[in-house]
Structures are given as structure tokens and as C-alpha cells.
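Hey, quick one: can you model this chain's 3D structure?
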Amino acid sequence: EMDLVYLLILGFSVHMSYLAGKHFGISDTIDYFEAKGYIDLDDE
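Sure thing. Here's the predicted structure for all 44 residues.
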């Protein structure tokens, strides 16, 4: 029974880490490309 709890906690932790990494990674990538001039984002 405790193994199941540990497995659920591990799964939740991995999932949340993936989502956080995906969010921050995409945000940093967009900022980098905009700073280098590869993309131009118009704030309208």
C-alpha cells in the first residue's frame, strides 16, 4: 500500500517538473530568439 503512495507521489512530482520545465523553457527560448532578432513579436 505504501509502495502505491510512493509511486503516485513520484508520478505527480515528475509530471509537475515536466510542466514547469516546459513552461520556463519555452518562455526563455522566445526571449532568446527575440533578443537575437530571429523573431519579432509586436505588442499590439
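One thing worth noting: The mean pLDDT is 90.
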